[in-house]
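Data availability excerpt. The first of two example chains:
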Amino acid sequence: MKREKIELDRIQAKLNSKYESIEKKELDLDALKLELQQKERNHSRMEDALRAQENKLKAMYNDLIVKLERISTVTKDEAKQMIFDILDAEVRLSNQKWVQKVEEETKQLAKEKSIQIIATAMQRYTADQVAMHSSSIVHLPSEEMKGRIIGKEGRNIKALEMATGMEFVIGEAPEIITISGFNPIRREIARRSLERLILDGRINPTRIEETVAQCEKELEEMIEEYGKSVILEFNLQGVHPEIVTMLGKLHFRTSYSQNVLVHCKEVGLFSRMIAEELGLDGATALRAGLLHDIGKAVTAEVEGPHAKIGGDIAKRCGEDPIIVNAIAAHHEEVPFASVYAIIVVIADTISASRPGARRETLTAYIKRLEKLEDIAHSFDGIKKAYALQAGREVRIIVEEESMNDEKTAMLAREIARKIEEEMSFPGQIKVNVIREKRAIEYAR
């Protein structure tokens, strides 16, 4: 019991100590509570003061807005919109300056790159600077042959001129006859016919007509060969026979004294070089460049721009729409549908602007002679019409069944009057209308 009493006293002392500690803590809590209450009261007073200040600031702000609106005659919403507009303009201006800078840098880079590509293409291609002339020379074996070619009272040379439409100039130069005319195909027929007649030795009007007709047939075959050789040279596939024939005809055509077929081959090569430099299909560019002037082969028969005519022909012959557009648009008469059309325009300019490639005056002269023939053919009953003597004479052969002598004389006056109205020319132009009736029988 004594030990238990001692233990109980110890526990009682411990409890008393804890009670004292708790009482002390309670006193501390009361002090903290009082302090917290004081802080809450202070905080409430500060909040009230801040609220009062905020209300005062709002009143001052509203009063300031009213005064500003009254002074500036602009409402708050209008001022806000003005600020937004100013910021928007500044942002757009900055953006525009940045875009302009990028565009200028891009254009400069593209210009340098394009110059390099074009210069490279021009350096890789070389061509002879040979201009075709509007006359051909035939050498005679002897002076005696001149008399045989002229014939009795000039009938042989007249027959040659009527059959070929060319002018045969027999001058003082020994053993030489010059064939003059602007149509290269007819001039080639005349040259071949005369050379063949000289070799044959039989020179008379009937033989002349037969020889000219035979040479015309042979030249048609040559045209086909020229066209086929170009196709084989460039290894083109699926080319329509009509286009092959037109390419062959271009060998005998000139544009500003530049051979059109040679020009087309140059444009094809330049187009392929430029396209390959740009990473495009070189075969498509080559085909478009080669065929871009095929309309010139039929401009004498079909009216209209040769670019549009060529595009219609290519479309009719089943060419790809990209190539059709490149042909039709190479003079910018229709919109570009692909980059290949632009490449063809560039290549066409390169080929045409080579030093010595073209001469303006010769083409103007040839166009004047063509105009003379066109005026003559615009009348009914015309069989053939030839411009001779550098445009100083137009020789017209009429259909003898549909015209009598009176109508022939009237036709000559009408043609002369129309030439005076539609053309300007120095000196005078002789209109020579020929009506010839032939009766042919054979003795068997």
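And the second chain:
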Amino acid sequence: MSPSENIEDYAKGWTGLMQLVRNGDSWSGNERNRFFLNGRQGAFHEISHLAGLDQSEDGRGLAIVDWDQDGRLDLWYRNRSAPRLRLMVNKKKSHPSVALKLEGTNCNRDAIGAVVELLPSSQNGRWVQSVKAGDLFLSQSSKWLHFGLGKETQDCTAQVLWPSGTKETFAGIKAGRFHLKQGSGIARQIKSRQKIKLDHTELKRPQHHSNAHILLPARAPFPTLSYRDQAARLFTTSRNPTPKLVILWSGTCSSCEKNLKQVASQVKAIRENQLTILALSADGIDGPTSDLSSTYELIEKTKLPFPWGIIDQESARKLHRFQENLFDRTPEPSVPLAILLDQNHRALAIYRGELSIPTILADLRTMRSSNAIQLYHLAPPMKGTWFTNPLGQREVDRLFPVMR
């Protein structure tokens, strides 16, 4: 086997794995968050339910931080499944604690690698922690070092071994928050910010909408579809002198009927915007055994004045694979569905559910006058800023090799 064949097999395997994840499977077998209590005798006890931390999400990252600065550590969860981010605020009554923020001068500023030994004046035990740049899986907890004091009430002394190799002692540390700057020898107390009110909120499932209005961030190559017209003549979709709206429908779908009626009623506006319509019925994908009576009845009922046909099974598969390449979670095959194409047979937008021809025409006018950067910024459904640059058209074409 040649190196190129090895690379191709690896790429196919990786693509298959990613598709499983996109379809809802987990990288690691759906790892629920679990919380263990140290029994201090060589055993840990799971108290996830008692602590309120037994959510069913597929956990990934975890960051530990005193978010509300009340002396108790809180948890940020990062999940693969929704909700992607969750803050768990610690409200349990506890003993006082010490939080230390280190600043290096002769070493790295964040004092990564420094080791702190906290010693109470009563000489009753000691606590040791180090400053880390990343802990747990894909996670970075706070760089503040947090020490629970238990029943200890005496002031403490911190002995710091800095990453540069020098040692330094800071005295007069008590319950609260302190800044230790290398070379100063002074533990400077920092006031906690004013109380932050973090109200508990229940997650509500958003109302499901069957409609979708998706502007693509780049012009994606669209597959060539085969269909037969009313006279059983075979045709294929291809480049068009003007943009085209491909509508997938069924004769037994009430929303499809509304869509075709709306298209028939908007003929003037559609033609004024130089938009071509191609309505393809999905009723024929079962092959020769398909019952097409409802297909012809709906065409007769709506008086559709645009070309129409009956798509075949292979073309329906192509359409599904096209969406697999576009979305992390591939939608189930369904109608009604519409795809807006430019004159080069590249997809600009996807519409699911009941159509709004005025909206589609407005999208067409906007995207006709938009360059690649502008298209990129039109795509997100919410406010925000991209932290990446758009791919060039050549790179986009490479993402859809099976569609050509």
